[in-house]
């Protein structure tokens, strides 16, 4: 195949996703896209990488390693190139050359700001020729602007070496799509060379149905075969920069394309869980762990045994004298357990529904603590498991509800100086998130929060929740702390009872690595730390307790346990 030949498969459907969040800020988005590409290999997944309005000021090892990770999982990676008319062609070519020199695994380029008139599109023919001939890149995708002028010059489409043209659209309105074809010889119109960008989509079931219908109409009428979704209506109220995350509609889009393509065999990889690789980021807050440094198979869905409650263990027990555990004495009077602290303030009561192992919690500030075996043997690398059913918020003082976004929180590495790691389930939609307490009422920004598309009902439903924490020791002796969460859904019976399936499919929902500067990216946190004389160092030392926290809620818990686990990198 010559460099001018388009590598686009005419029969293939594709999705285009901007990865404008740096892997330093949100590696979860990169992992999610990699996992999607692995799950749907028949769909052409394209990721757009932007360091700083282009390739940045020089090569970045973090970007290199994670671009390699994307490619390893089947993503076509394109470099962002600003081609608006206020930038010279020489500057554009310099950016393209830097992309290739600094990130040689890049597949091609994504041109932004392509205008729609003959005079301004001529240099894009030159740029696409430069990309294919001189730089020998396979893919060039162009996003053309000026939505009030939907037509593209026919000669530009025919003469350029651009593989896919992406048309910007404000809303899901299928009718204007047909203007893409106007002015172009029908025999020369190639649907596989056109994509549609859709924005301002509110996050709800109606929008998902619109997307499904829209995709089918585009493909059925031979209008476009590539789809680009990004920000959602109102997203900027919660996210100042919606491009710092993956669209909530990525899975919906790719899943529908996969159904249309007739692919029934989807690889059994959990959403957002990329292939364990040899690539990981030395200077990032979160990264993929090489297989030899983590029990990654066990931490995804692999079950290596069962605990005393019959709940799946994702990590093995620590060896010999290093092992300790604690089990919620739910079949007895838990308030008399000498290793369970603060039970009185939790309002713990056995449920009177015939399920002797379920305990009701009713308190405005519940912090149940499970103590380690002894002062000499504290908790270090732990797998904490609990099943809970969130019932309702409690009325606080002055007849106001106690405000908290979380149904339940598990903590680890609890230190007397108000420091710990926290993993929480959001009561509104069941997503999970991670954060670190670095001082009294002082927390880092949350990390590894699931995308909204993974939301599921929590209230009055049983949810299994795991929080796993362990140390990783790098060469040179530096300690990092690995955090991950897992959720088991669909365990509520027809009468509201807990029903644990025989085949427990625990799904990893969050994963993060604390390298010691978590929180310093937030100016407010950094300022408070400086003023208080506190630091945001990793919490690598053992602690006396782990906690179950629920503030201002009524709930039921059962099967709560803590185990000291074995991780290869720390044995």
Model description:
It is a single chain. Helix 1 (23-39) packs parallel to helix 2 (61-72). It is built from 10 helices and 23 strands. The protein has an 8-stranded parallel β-barrel with strand order 1-2-3-4-5-6-7-8, surrounded by 5 helices. Residues 1-6, 146-151, 170-189, 231-242 and 263-301 have low confidence and may be disordered. It is of the alpha/beta class and 571 residues long. Helix content is 20%, strand content 27%. It folds into 2 domains: 14-260, TIM Barrel, CATH 3.20.20; 306-570, Sandwich (Jelly Rolls). The chain has helices spanning 23-39, 61-72, 89-102, 118-134, 154-159, 205-220, 235-238, 250-260, 296-300, 523-532, and strands spanning 14-19, 44-49, 76-82, 108-114, 139-144, 164-169, 194-198, 226-229, 325-327, 340-341, 349-350, 359-363, 366-371, 382-393, 406-415, 419-426, 432-439, 442-443, 462-473, 479-488, 507-514, 545-550, 553-564.
Strands ordered across the widest β-sheet: 1-2-3-4-5-6-7-8
CATH homology-level superfamily of the largest domain: Exo-inulinase, domain 1
Main sheet characteristics? 8 strands, parallel, barrel
**3D shape:** globular
Reported by name, the CATH topology of the largest domain is Jelly Rolls
List unreliable stretches of 5+ residues.
1-6, 146-151, 170-189, 231-242, 263-301
Task: Based on the model shown, name its key terms.
single chain, 571 residues, alpha/beta, TIM Barrel, Jelly Rolls, 2 domains, eight-stranded parallel β-barrel, eight-stranded antiparallel beta sheet, 10 helices, 27% strand
Furnish the topology, listing elements before pairings.
Elements: E1 14-19, H1 23-39, E2 44-49, H2 61-72, E3 76-82, H3 89-102, E4 108-114, H4 118-134, E5 139-144, H5 154-159, E6 164-169, E7 194-198, H6 205-220, E8 226-229, H7 235-238, H8 250-260, H9 296-300, E9 325-327, E10 340-341, E11 349-350, E12 359-363, E13 366-371, E14 382-393, E15 406-415, E16 419-426, E17 432-439, E18 442-443, E19 462-473, E20 479-488, E21 507-514, H10 523-532, E22 545-550, E23 553-564
Parallel strand pairs: 1-2, 1-8, 2-3, 3-4, 4-5, 5-6, 6-7, 7-8
Antiparallel strand pairs: 9-23, 10-13, 11-12, 12-23, 13-22, 14-19, 14-23, 15-16, 15-22, 16-17, 17-18, 19-20, 20-21
């Amino acid at each position: 195949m010559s460099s001018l030949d388009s590598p686009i498969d005419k029969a293939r459907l594709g999705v285009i996703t901007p990865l404008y969040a740096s892997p330093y800020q949100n590696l979860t988005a990169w992992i999610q896209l990699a996992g999607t590409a692995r799950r749907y290999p028949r769909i052409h997944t394209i990721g757009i990488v932007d360091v700083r309005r282009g390739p940045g000021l020089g090569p970045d090892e973090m970007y290199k390693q994670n671009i390699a990770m994307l490619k390893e999982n089947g993503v076509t990676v394109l470099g962002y190139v600003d081609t608006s008319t206020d930038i010279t062609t020489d500057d554009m070519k310099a950016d393209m050359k830097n992309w290739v020199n600094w990130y040689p695994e890049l597949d091609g380029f994504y041109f932004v700001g392509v205008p729609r008139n003959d005079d301004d599109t001529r240099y894009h023919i030159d740029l696409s020729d430069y990309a294919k001939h001189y730089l020998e890149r396979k893919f060039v995708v162009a996003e053309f602007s000026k939505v009030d002028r939907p037509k593209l010059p026919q000669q530009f489409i025919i003469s350029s070496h651009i593989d896919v043209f992406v048309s910007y659209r404000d809303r899901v309105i299928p009718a204007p799509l047909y203007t893409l074809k106007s002015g172009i010889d029908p025999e020369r119109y190639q649907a596989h060379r056109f994509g549609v960008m859709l924005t301002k989509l509110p996050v709800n079931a109606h929008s998902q149905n619109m997307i499904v219908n829209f995709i089918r109409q585009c493909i059925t009428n031979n209008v476009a075969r590539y789809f680009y979704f990004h920000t959602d209506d109102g997203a900027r109220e919660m996210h100042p920069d919606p491009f710092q995350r993956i669209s909530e509609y990525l899975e919906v889009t790719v899943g529908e394309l996969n159904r249309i393509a007739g692919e029934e065999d989807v690889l059994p990889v959990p959403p957002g869980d990329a292939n364990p690789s040899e690539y990981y980021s030395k200077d990032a807050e979160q990264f993929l762990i090489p297989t030899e440094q983590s029990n990654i198979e066990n931490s995804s869905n692999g079950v290596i045994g069962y605990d005393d409650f019959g709940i799946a263990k994702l990590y093995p027990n620590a060896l010999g004298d290093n092992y300790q555990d604690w089990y919620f004495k739910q079949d007895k009077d838990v308030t008399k357990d000498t290793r369970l602290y603060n039970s009185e303030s939790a309002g713990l009561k056995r449920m009177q529904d015939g399920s002797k192992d379920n305990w009701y919690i009713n308190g405005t500030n519940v912090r149940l603590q499970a103590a380690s075996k002894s002062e000499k043997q504290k908790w270090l690398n732990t797998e904490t498991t609990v099943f809970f059913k969130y019932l309702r918020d409690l009325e606080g003082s002055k007849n106001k509800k106690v405000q908290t976004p979380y149904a339940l929180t598990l903590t680890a590495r609890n230190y007397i100086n108000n420091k710990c790691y926290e993993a929480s389930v959001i009561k509104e939609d069941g997503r999970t998130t991670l954060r670190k307490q670095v001082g009294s009422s002082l927390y880092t920004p949350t990390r590894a929060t699931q995308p909204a598309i993974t939301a599921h009902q929590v209230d009055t439903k049983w949810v299994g929740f795991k929080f796993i924490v362990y140390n990783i020791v790098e060469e040179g002796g530096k300690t990092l702390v690995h955090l991950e969460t897992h959720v088991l859904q669909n365990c509520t019976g027809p009468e509201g009872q807990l029903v644990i399936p025989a085949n427990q499919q625990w799904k990893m929902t969050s994963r993060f690595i604390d390298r010691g500067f978590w929180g310093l990216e937030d100016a407010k946190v950094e300022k408070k730390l400086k003023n208080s004389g506190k630091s945001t160092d990793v919490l690598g030392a053992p602690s006396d307790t782990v906690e179950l926290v629920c503030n201002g809620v009524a709930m039921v818990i059962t099967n709560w346990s803590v185990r000291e686990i074995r991780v290869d990198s720390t044995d």
